[in-house]
Amino acid sequence: MIPPKPTSNRHCRLHNVQFYNLLPRGIVCSAINEQQHKLALARDDGTIEIWNMVHAPFLEKTVVGGAGLSIEGLAWAGERLFSVSLAGTLIEWDMRTGNGGHPRVKQSVLVTGNSAWCIAVSRDDWLLAVGTEGGYINLYRLENDELTYERILDKQDGRIVCCRFNHSGDFLVTGSADAVRVWDVRKGHAVHKMTTGRSDRGTPTIVWDVAVLKDFTVISVDSRGRMMFFDGHLGTVLDNVPVSKADLLCLALTADEEKLFVAGVESIIVTFRRMDGDGLKGGAKRNNFVRSVNRRCHTHDIKTMATLGRTGLVSGGIDGTLAVTSYPPFQVDKYLPLLPAPAAVVAHGSRTVLLRYTNYLEVWTLARLTDDGADSSGGRKILQIRSKNDEHIVCAAISPDGQWIVYSTENTVRLLRYTPDPRGSDSGRARLMRVKSVPEQFGPGYRVDFTHDSGSLFLYHSNRTITLFACLDDGKGGAGLEHTQTIDGSRWLSEAVHLSAVSQCNRYLVCADTASSIVVFERSAAVPSPVVAKWKRSISLPRYKLPPTAIAIQPGKTRLAVAFADHKLFLYDFDEFQFVFSAYLKLGDGGVGIPNHPISGIVFDPRHESAMLLKNDSDILSVSFGAAELDEPHAQKRKSHHKANGTGGPSNGTADQSKHTLKKVRESNRLVSIEWLGESELVVIEANALALIEHLPGAFRKKLYGKT
């Protein structure tokens, strides 16, 4: 959609890109670390995502998946993350040295019993249990940052679908076909086998999930849509509660055990509240949970849930949406299964856009505006590039002139040279070739940037090093790459680079990590050639208490805008060493009425020096400050009275630094990226809603009386 020529400097032409056809990636399992405020979740393509849940949830790290990979269980043991898969492997991921792109495998162990279906860690982080297809329970001891084999419990018939330790860690509760078992961990034997019964004589009942209360009451949910309560001490049934007409797949308990959440194929989260009461006459225990409110935030099967505090709940399922809900009051924030940013890159000089998918890239043209309207060359796909062996693409970028394309997977990195058709038609004279003349330093990375003159390339690696390359063109169709410098970022960055930005003058590079370290690098001004120019650290910004979620350098100035997870936004002049603007943006119920999503993108308005556009997953916001803030008579003006927190930040010496105007410009539930194209055109890239839905399986349907 391209509107007519703007009539004032308050309007712009809009390129509404909606041909980004991302496929849904369902959520299989999850695990939450309450101490670290981290959520780990696995998708059906084998990808593991680490989300920071301190304030507004945002994707912090990613473990890329691949064809044939299936993660069936996740568990935290302190700061250690473990996963099990259908390949029969127990993997510990190195989270401490893991980079902003993807953590590495620390150790991998083959378990006994073929495919692994479930994993559990005791509350004291001392024992780890893995349930397998063959009916074996593998026990491991966690001590001194090591994983030590302990023993195998007695073999049972059939698959072990789920498992959970009791609060003391002396017993393990497992669920399988038609039964819930209680195991003595020290002796290795099952002390109780509690049968569930069947709805149909020939169909076994699958126990999909179990939970254990502090008083050793065992709760299970099964394929009949029933929730059962057992006495773990005696091995007897306490209650049998029908909840759904379809399978119940997961349950979750709050830390105080006052609320119980149950969900499954019916895509409704049912809440149960604990009522006061000690039991029945004679001292017999009973179920004292009563049904409360329902939460509807998914369209398909809900496969995993995890509690967040006393009222929060995180859920995910086949539709791929990560839902964060709380009650009371009822609030829901949804995060669609988008790829980690940057997933779309705009090449300003060639008016093209690069779209990244899991295992291939697409390059599309953008319409060229004329006085008579848009031409017919816009919205045309000119390239599709598949990765080698269909590996998952970790990062990709296109140069501003549209002639260099680079992408990296876990094992390979490719640099491509694209020569468009000089006549601008489809005569087939365009050429795409792989650049084979690359130095040995050109290895796989997890993030990549081009300078605005398309002359240099930055490649970020997991060991916190940044390699710089010069893109060479001999003018005769030949192309090459030359290594110019390697920057050791470990001297100033605590973790690997999470965010990066290159200035429009190609003189400054800003890097930030998830530990709130923000470093500005500067290129030698006396040497114009990118081959011999050297980069050095210029300044490190004051460190904030939370990690940044978006950064941007203002064109033509030495100003850096940084947004954080708690919606704090500041503008810092790293040449004058002072803050220009700093405020807490009031979003959600207390602000402009948008979800509690983090700010994931910042672009400066080229027509106004004191204005910028912000984006999250659902909205585009306009922020005006300083002189521009005074020119907004109809907007709701805000003044922040918060003080800076953390180890550093702006002072409240001048009230003008916090005055700003915040407006909602555009609403979109699938926003991927925004970028200015010149001074009067804005490119807005959204995920195609139809593509996210049409590839999903059919949802559960319940026949209602009198309805056809």
Notes on the structure:
- The protein has 708 residues and is mainly β.
- It contains 2 helices and 58 strands.
- The strands form 15 sheets. The chain has a 5-stranded antiparallel sheet.
- It is globular, with a radius of gyration of 28 Å.
- Residues 279-284, 630-648 and 650-654 have low confidence and may be disordered.
Total strand count, please? Answer: 58
Helix content: under 10%
General form: globular
**Spatial ordering of strands, largest sheet:** 52-53-54-56-55
- Evaluate the radius of gyration: 28 Å
Largest sheet: 5 strands, antiparallel
Structural key phrases:
mainly beta; 708 residues; globular
The gist of it:
With 708 residues, the protein is mostly beta strands. It contains two helices and 58 strands.
Task: Give me the secondary-structure topology.
Elements: E1 13-20, E2 27-33, E3 38-43, E4 48-52, E5 58-63, E6 71-77, E7 80-85, E8 89-94, E9 104-110, E10 116-121, E11 127-132, E12 137-143, E13 146-152, E14 162-165, E15 171-176, E16 179-184, E17 189-195, E18 207-212, E19 217-222, E20 226-231, E21 236-242, E22 248-253, E23 259-264, E24 269-274, E25 289-295, E26 302-308, E27 312-317, E28 322-326, E29 331-335, E30 344-347, E31 352-356, E32 360-365, E33 369-370, E34 373-374, E35 381-386, E36 395-398, E37 404-408, E38 413-419, E39 431-434, E40 447-450, E41 456-460, E42 465-473, E43 479-488, E44 499-502, E45 508-512, E46 518-523, E47 535-540, E48 548-553, E49 559-564, E50 568-573, E51 578-584, E52 601-604, E53 611-615, E54 619-625, H1 627-630, E55 637-639, E56 659-667, E57 671-676, E58 681-687, H2 689-694
Parallel strand pairs: 1-58
Antiparallel strand pairs: 2-3, 3-4, 4-5, 6-7, 7-8, 8-9, 10-11, 11-12, 12-13, 14-15, 15-16, 16-17, 18-19, 19-20, 20-21, 22-23, 23-24, 24-25, 26-27, 27-28, 28-29, 30-31, 31-32, 32-35, 33-34, 36-37, 37-38, 38-39, 40-41, 41-42, 42-43, 44-45, 45-46, 46-47, 48-49, 49-50, 50-51, 52-53, 53-54, 54-56, ...
